[in-house]
Design goal:
This protein is of the alpha/beta class and about 475 residues long. It has 3 domains: about 1-110, no CATH class; about 120-280 and about 450-475, NAD(P)-binding Rossmann-like Domain (Rossmann fold, 3-Layer(aba) Sandwich), CATH 3.40.50; about 280-445, Dihydrodipicolinate Reductase, domain 2 (2-Layer Sandwich), CATH 3.30.360.10. Helices cover about 30% and strands about 25% of the residues. The chain has 12 helices and 21 strands. Helix 6 links the parallel strand 4 (about 120-125) and strand 5 (about 145-155).
């Protein structure tokens, strides 16, 4: 075991400069079965390869993928996200010359652009979701350069507003410290985060900000205040100079498109100036519901959400305009409503009228669970469903939205920081005839924020090409 470990460390160490070379020279990010190798150490590389045991008959070692990585570094590649694990396994099965194999598999990005044209992004609001969006945008800019956080718009709350907001970005009680450095330029209302200049703009009116005065043009404004949720309210942003599109981090009302990335993001067109990212729960459950409906058909079902408390609840008993939400969030389970089950049909019209839902707010700060109680058109077994969800999580085009776990020891805090929309807990699956119950964990803050950023990248034309291409979930 010691020698095996030493061999892995040596191979991983040899991979590091080649990973950086591909990123720096070609704007290529590599992964091992979806585990991205960005800002990694040799230990991180070994851990990523350990994950391959879930996707292959034999666990891959860094020494297995190193030859593929070395061959990639000699190709004239353009911007892409390339899976070393899948390429290594595919070449083993096919055989033949490695260089010729890679040229065939990666033909779409050979000799293409190595830089993405950057799109300006503005965050309107800087609360729980806004600050996580900022963290992800800063990381994504460093990874691909396709989206660039330029400004944050907030209402001023006192003399030390800028310093306090920078501190909240730097430290988070749930998600930990910011990965990098943050400095504050109070004179110019600027927060510098890992070299990214974030202009803080103080305004109470979304229609009156002149973003062009700060060099911001054709921006995507991400409204994470939740104050306006219909076309009329959100259209105020479009009156400001320098704004091209608006993305809302909440379910939209009226005729606005509710987008769950991975499900209906293809419905976005050039004429859609306002797009909504639905809710965290809708994003958490819709991908799994789509897979089940595609393979077995859903006649009807009920979604019960066990949801962490949020900022709109009271810390201690006090008046609240919402029913039950006035009671102390940290001391009670609070039964409340959720529109997530109904909202699923906006992304999956075939489920219209088939789902009901309720929610229970519980005294945890992050990570929630949805219990999907479904009646199907076909009879299923627990093993059959779990096997399907496992394959979807590893090999399908919903791999970023769905992951699968089969462990008797996991609890909610284990899923803080997941980038997936939902995590299917295989050990909790219940199946009897046409009756199926699935338990889906989701990080209602960070997992949802990643889904929002995917939409932002989609409307900005900044989503990197993923190779080898993933299999449509309906075909598995």
């Amino acid at each position: 075991m010691a020698q095996d470990w030493n061999d892995k460390i040596e191979s991983a160490g040899r991979m590091l400069p080649r990973i950086h070379q591909l990123h720096r020279n070609n704007n290529v990010v590599v992964s091992v079965f979806g585990r991205l190798l960005i800002d990694v150490t040799d230990i991180d590389i070994i851990k990523a390869h350990r994950y391959s045991r879930l996707a292959t008959e034999e666990e891959l070692s860094p020494s297995d993928t190193l030859p593929v990585l070395e061959a990639l570094s000699k190709l004239d590649l353009g911007t892409a996200s390339i899976d070393l694990g899948r390429l290594t396994v595919a070449h083993r099965e096919k055989g033949g010359d490695l260089d010729a194999f890679l040229r065939e598999e990666l033909a779409e990005v050979l000799g293409t652009e190595q830089q993405m044209e950057s799109t300006d992004v503005v965050l309107y609001g800087f609360g729980r979701i806004g600050r996580l969006l900022a963290r992800i945008l800063i990381q994504r800019e460093a990874a691909y350069g396709g989206v660039r956080l330029r400004a944050v718009v907030v209402r001023k709350n006192g003399e030390k507003d800028l310093v306090k907001r920078a501190s909240l970005l730097r430290r988070d009680s749930v998600h930990g410290a910011f990965n990098g450095t943050i400095t504050v330029d109070e004179e110019n209302d600027v927060i510098w985060a890992n070299g990214t200049k974030i202009q803080v703009i103080y305004s109470n009116d979304p229609a009156s900000v002149d973003y062009t005065a700060y060099g911001i043009n054709d921006a995507v404004v991400v409204d994470n205040t939740g104050r306006w949720r219909d076309r009329e309210g959100l259209s105020q942003h479009l009156k400001s100079k320098g704004v091209k599109r608006v993305v809302l981090t909440a379910p939209g009302k009226g005729d606005l498109k509710n987008i769950v990335y991975g499900i209906n993001h293809g419905d976005i067109n050039e004429d859609d100036q306002i797009i909504t990212a639905a809710s965290c729960t809708t994003n958490g459950i819709t991908p799994t519901l789509k897979v089940i409906n595609d393979h077995y058909g859903i006649e009807h079902g009920h979604v019960e959400t066990v949801h962490s408390f949020t900022n709109d609840q009271n810390l201690i008993d006090n008046f609240h305009k919402g029913e039950r939400r006035g009671r102390a969030a940290g001391l009670n389970m609070v039964l409340t409503e959720t529109g997530a089950a109904r909202a699923v049909s906006k992304a999956l019209p075939e489920l219209h009228g088939k789902l009901t839902g309720n929610a229970i707010r519980v005294p945890t700060p992050d990570v929630s669970m949805a219990v999907l109680n479904l009646t199907l058109e076909k009879e299923v077994t627990r093993e059959e469903v779990n096997s399907l969800m496992d394959r979807v999580a590893l090999h399908s085009d919903l791999r970023q939205q769905i992951t699968y776990i089969h462990s008797p020891e996991v609890v909610s805090s284990d899923f803080i920081g997941t980038t997936h929309a939902g995590i299917v807990d295989g050990l909790a699956t219940i199946a009897e005839g046409k009756h199926l119950v699935l338990y889906v964990w989701y990080d209602n803050e960070f997992g949802y924020s990643n889904q929002v950023i995917r939409i932002v990248e989609e409307v900005a034309g900044a989503r990197p090409l993923v190779l080898p291409k993933r299999v449509p979930s309906a075909e598995l």
